[in-house]
Write a structure and sequence with these properties.
208 residues; Metallo-beta-lactamase, Chain A; 5-stranded mixed beta sheet
Length: 208
């Protein structure tokens, strides 16, 4: 049976990642912290948060009461500033990489600058890169595109941006970031399924 991982965008920077009955939720947000995003109520075996801001840190809202002890993912973390001033403005951010032994998914959190070269090198060639592209609180869209090119993932999924119905007014739509990409695929829902046969693309999911 082919390796398969299901990713569901729960709005803003929050994703549910599932494989073989094991569920990870990354960066759930506090109720009402992000305009247009519904409260997140999920069951999971593992919850990860990139930093302590309210739009990323609501681990207590995820039900882990029946969490499985054995994970299917190895989790590797990398620290980087949440801003362009070594963290003095907004603190530090954690990048999480989930590895099932075949496929790797990197969630960049609120990356605010180009990370150290050794971090970029460790991320190179990931199968899926979850990248914030709205700017202001994170890398600006052009810089996010430059970092994506450095990492060269098979698939990049934009996150942490504004739409007509969701997101902070001060962050951008994904358009500027997408102008740097020539492999954009628009999906009609929030789900992306990754296999070893998934073609390279920039996958734009639809939040519902």
């Amino acid at each position: 049976m082919k390796d398969e991982i299901r990713l569901t965008w729960l709005g803003h920077s929050c994703f549910k990642i599932e494989k073989g009955g094991f569920t990870v939720v990354i960066d759930p947000m506090q109720d009402g912290s992000v305009p247009g995003v519904r409260p997140v109520r999920e069951k999971a075996d593992l919850v990860l948060c990139s930093h302590g801001h309210g739009d990323h840190n609501a681990a207590q809202l995820i039900d882990v009461s029946a969490a499985k002890a054995n994970t299917v993912f190895a989790v590797r973390t990398f620290q980087c500033p949440h801003d362009d001033a070594d963290g003095s403005k907004r603190g530090m951010n954690t990048i999480h990489v989930l590895d099932d032994g075949t496929l790797r998914i990197a969630h960049m959190g609120d990356v605010g600058c180009i990370p150290a070269q050794e971090t970029v090198d460790a991320l190179k060639g990931v199968d899926v890169l979850l990248m914030p592209v709205g700017g202001h609180y994170t890398l600006e869209p052009d810089d996010a595109a430059a970092l994506t090119a450095m990492i060269a993932p098979r698939v990049v999924i934009p996150m942490h941006y504004r739409t007509e119905t969701m997101g902070f007014d001060v962050i951008a739509t994904p358009d500027r970031f997408l102008s740097h990409r020539d492999d954009v695929v628009y999906y009609d829902g929030p789900v992306f399924t990754l296999t070893d046969e998934t073609q390279p693309q920039t996958a734009v999911l639809q939040y519902r």
